[in-house]
Amino acid sequence: MKKQFAVIGLGRFGHSMAETLIQSGCEVVAIDTDEEKIQAISDLATYAVQVDATDEKALRTIGLQNVDTAVVSIGEDIEASILIVMTLKELGVKEIVAKAVTPIHGKILRNLGVSRVVFPEREVAIRLANSLAQPAIIDYMDLSAGYSVMEIPAPQGILGSKVRDSRIRERYGVNLIAIRRKIPIITDAGETDFKEDLKINPDPDDEIAVGDILVVLGSRESLASMRPA
Ligand code: ATP
Q1: Spacing of C-alpha 205 from chain mean position
Q2: How would you list the strands of the sheet with 95-99, edge to edge?
Q3: How far apart (Å, rounded) are the C-alpha atoms in residues 126 and 227?
Q4: How confident is the model over 35-91, as pLDDT tens digits?
Q5: Does position 213 have pLDDT exceeding 80, yes or no?
Q6: Which of 177, 217, 183 is nearest to 199 (CA)?
Q7: Residue 198 Cα, ligand 1 centroid: separation in angstroms?
Q8: What separation, in Å, do the N-terminal and C-terminal C-alpha atoms of the chain show?
Q9: CB burial class (10 A; 0-12, 13-18, 19+) of residue 65?
């Protein structure tokens, strides 16, 4: 069965969120008080409903209590964002993800039991700054308490070694969680193309080859030790 989402608030963040979830094959109920925002998404969304999401009765009529996850994406009107989260809690929605614009807003949302609070602008800025400062880094994602996940081309010194012999953890203090690799394939037209393969939890006997991208998890200091000078 398809996963069911509600996206409440269709600003730039909410609209992109709803669009991407739909493209990923999920069912999406899109909600906004603004008729234009509803019209802009109505061709895509499973349902697009113009309603005030602080109105518990209206949400119940739409069946919002049945969604797997509700995403609250309201930045400007913090009061509305908080009231909507409270309404979703009353309805018994299990997983709520909410966008926050200030630290206090984030703290209130967490205290209300939001499973995941996102600060989109701050998060994008951190990722972008890391990739600009260190062009060798392909992607970088901050987790909590000083830990991050980084994608980086396999360091020169371990090319050709098996995962077990590369001693990545001893050398750099990071855990290898996946290897991304481009595998050559022959297309129907007889041409060579490349297929992206993501090997999660690589085998100790897997060999680290030229062109491999390592996905590693560790403290920011440990990850820094892996970056090329
Ligand atoms: P952006 O994502 O574009 O940066 P933003 O997070 O600041 O913007 P807002 O401008 O706050 O987003 O807009 C969020 C959307 O939420 C608006 O389209 C607004 O109409 C809608 N909205 C605000 N209050 C409610 C509510 N009570 N019920 C439903 N929708 C609401």
Answers
A1: 30
A2: 47-50, 27-32, 4-8, 69-72, 95-99, 116-118
A3: 17
A4: 999 999 998 888 999 999 999 999 999 999 999 999 999 988 999 999 999 999 999
A5: yes
A6: 177
A7: 37
A8: 48
A9: middle
Cβ neighbours of residue 191 under 8 Å, at least 6 residues apart? none
Tens digits of per-residue pLDDT, 154-203? Answer: 988 889 999 999 999 998 899 999 999 888 788 888 888 888 888 889 99
Q: Cα–Cα distance between 28 and 22 in angstroms, integer?
A: 6
- Rounded Cα–Cα distance for residues 72 and 117 (Å): 10
Taking CA atoms, 226 is separated from 55, 96, 203, in Å, by: 51, 36, 21
The residue to mutate among 76, 97, 109, having the most atoms of ligand 1 within 8 angstroms of its beta carbon, is: 76
* 91 token code pair: 């309805």
Is 11 strand, coil or helix? coil
- Tell me the CA–centroid distance for residue 221 and ligand 1, in Å: 38
| Ligand 1 centroid from CA 205, angstroms | 51
List of residues 6+ apart from 197 with CB closer than 8 A: 180, 181, 182, 183
- Of 216, 223, 220, the closest CA to residue 200 belongs to 216
Q: Does ligand 1 lie within 6 Å of residue 77's CB atom? A: yes
* Region class of 82: left (phi > 0), else alpha (psi between -120 and 50), else beta: alpha
